[in-house]
Amino acid sequence: MKVLIIFLxxxxxxxHASDCLKPQMPxxxxxxxxxxxxxxxxxxxxxxxxxxxxxLKDVQPQKKIIMRDRCQPESTITLDEYLYYRVDKARxxxxxxxxxxxxxxxxxxxxxxxxxxxxxxxxLGMESYYGKNQGKIKxxxxxxxxxxxxxxxxxxxxxLFGLLEIIDKKMSPNDLVLGSWGGAIGMTQMIPTxxxxxxxxxxxxxxxIWNSYPDSFASIANYLTSINKNPWSTDSTWGREVIPPDNIxxxxxxxxxxxxxxxxxxxxxxxxxxxxEWSALxxxxxxxxxxxNRSDLEARLISPDGINGRFFLxxxxxxxxxxxxxxxxxxxxxxxxxxxxxx
Length: 343
Known about the structure:
The chain is mostly helical and about 350 residues long. The chain is built from 16 helices and six strands.
């Protein structure tokens, strides 16, 4: 099964890459002119001239970064295949171990930010395999390249100025910040602007999401609980998998949300109903029982793989997870992993 999945992924990658036009790289003069403009903008934003000049002195556009960004293969993987690699046995075992080893500090952070520890651990496990896979690409090169490229220039210019600010304020262990090709950094894999907004110094010796578990835990908790207009609820979990009624095909048409917008607007995400209302429509838990009798808890129905796939009722906390990574597969994997590490 594993070999087949990898084979299909490689075929998908090759087919998609063949249709992906190779980017035309800027001339030396074009790049240098753009860099000089960026330097002036960064200095105008209050970043020290010394940091700007030292960081951008030898940066060159990286073709491989643009190719990674523009030529990502179209995903044909199913939810079950995604979970096979993301909510794997090793990740569950390590998550259980970390939850126990860091029980005291997690309890303090949980009380302070009002979030269950298992979600903090699940995000850390998903983002960087509990800190082991933080990325090895020079962030200044990756982000500067993507800031120049027209596809997401505006977004990545903000990330570039954010990264320069992080370095200028000595908020990173050293000036050589490493991360993913997309600019995510540290155990938490936050982009620079998110780092500046949500990174948290829990142990009192400076923010360090690269080496400090307490800071990484607190930073994740701070981000998940500070989403505008959608506070985290400790009175509920993320959601649950459900068994749909036999007339699900007809129900989906009447339950479909109209004109969904924003990160939380995933395909087939329904209107909100209370759990008793979902029970009345015929939805059951995985044991075939009625859902909890909580009229105060709204849930939305999602089916990422369509009518023949798995169905889930997701609660308000699920939306906060989506803001960390706007993918229903990702958010479900966080929820399911968080369940596994406490069971």
